[in-house]
Amino acid sequence: MVRLQVKRGEENLFLFDTNVTTKVEDVLKQILPIYNGRLKVGRICYEIEELVKHGVMNCPEVVELTEEQVAELKINDPWIESCIPSGGYRTNIDPIRRRCGRQPMPEMQKVLEKAMADAKELISKKLADSGECLGLKNVQDALDILRGAVMIVYPMGLPPHDPIRMELSNTEDLSGTQASLEVIEPTKAQLWFAGRQMIPEDQLKIYVGNNEKCKVIVKLGKHGEGQPGREPVLSEETRRELMLRAYRRQEELKKLEQDDDDEYLNSTWADSSSLKRQVHGLDNIKFHYGKK
User: Fold this and answer.
1) Average pLDDT over the chain, rounded to whole?
2) Rounded to the nearest 5°, which phi and psi values hold at 95?
3) pLDDT classification of 152: cutoffs 50, 70, 90
4) Which letter does DSSP use for residue 279 in this model?
5) Beta 215-222 vs 2-8: how paired, if at all?
6) Please, are residues 110 and 9 in contact by the beta-carbon 8 Å criterion?
7) Which residues pair with 102 in a beta bridge?
8) What is the pLDDT of residues 32-64, one digit of tens each?
9) Could you tell me the CA-to-CA distances from 49 to 95, 157, 187 in Å, in that order?
10) CB of 15 closer than 8 Å to CB of 133
11) How many CB atoms lie within 10 A of CB 5?
12) Angle at 219 between CA 213 and CA 221, to 5 degrees
C-alpha cells in the first residue's frame, strides 16, 4: 500500500492508504468525501457551540429582529415552544438575535461539549503526525456522535431551519458563505503531485512509481486555482537545525577574530626551548621563594 499525505495548500490534512495501480479519479472519489466530511464536522461543531450558548435557531423571519419588532409584526415561531432542551433551560439572549436565547442546562451542555471533543479527535490532524490513516468511517463516526448528542439534549428534534439539523440531514445550503469556498465539488477536484497535475485516467504509478511501500505528498485543488505551491526542500526541523549550526559557527568565528594573532606563542607546543629542557630534565621544575 502506498501512503498518501493529503494536503490542501500548505495545510497537512490526513494520511490515506491506497495502491499504485489505483486510478487517480478513484483516489479522488475516496479522499474527497473525507475532506468534505471533515469540513462538515467542523461546521456542525461551530453551530453546536452556539447551540450550547443560546439554544435553537430562530425561524428566518425572526432572525436579527428585536422583541419589539417581532411583537409589532406578530410573527410566531412555533418551533421555539416545541424544541425545549432536556432538563429545562435558562435565558441567555443571543446578541445578534440569531438563536432563541434558551440555553440548555449545564448537564446537557457537558453532553454536547464532550461530543464535540470526541468528534474532533476522530478527525484530528494529529492523526497524521502519529502516522494514523483517516478513513470515511472516522468521519461517519464523528457525525454519529454529534447526532446522538443532539438527540439526547433535544429528543423532539431541532427545527427544520436549524443549521445543525440541515447539516446532519445533508440539506444544508452553503451558497454565498465562506464555507462554500472551502468545499470541493467532485466535478471540480484536482490532485497534484510534485507540482504536476495528475490526470484522472492515469494510474498512480505513473507519478509515484511502482514501489508500494512509499509515502508521497499529494495536494487537493480546484479547477481554476492553478498549481499549488511546491513543498520546501528542507523541512522546518532541518531548517532550524541548520540555522542553529550556522549561528554557532558564526559565534566561533567572532571569538577567533577577538584573539590576538600571536596568542599561540603562549602555548607549550610553540615553545622552541621545550625539547631542550626535556632532554636535560629541566621540564616541570618549580621554584619556591621565601623561608619554609
Assistant:
1) 86
2) -60, -30
3) very high
4) H
5) parallel
6) no
7) 91
8) 999 999 999 999 999 999 999 999 998 877 776
9) 15, 17, 32
10) yes
11) 16
12) 150
Identify whether the C-beta of residue 1 lies closer than 8 Å to the C-beta of residue 19: yes
Gap between the Cα atoms of 241 and 248, Å rounded: 11
> How far apart are alpha carbons 158 and 166 in whole angstroms?
9
Predicted confidence at residue 238, as pLDDT, reads 79
What SS3 class is residue 4? Answer: strand
DSSP class per residue in 169-200? TT----TTSHHHHH---GGGEEEEETTEEPPT
Predicted pLDDT at 275 = 67
Which sign, positive or negative, has the C-alpha torsion 267, 273, 277, 282? negative
Q: What does the CA dihedral 121, 220, 16, 194 come to, rounded to 10 degrees? A: -130
Provide the 10 A C-beta neighbour count for residue 189.
19
Q: Which residues pair with 129 in a beta bridge?
A: none
Q: What is the pLDDT of residue 292?
A: 52
| Residue matched to cell numbers 468534505 | 36
Q: Is 203 helix (H, G, I), strand (E, B) or coil?
A: strand
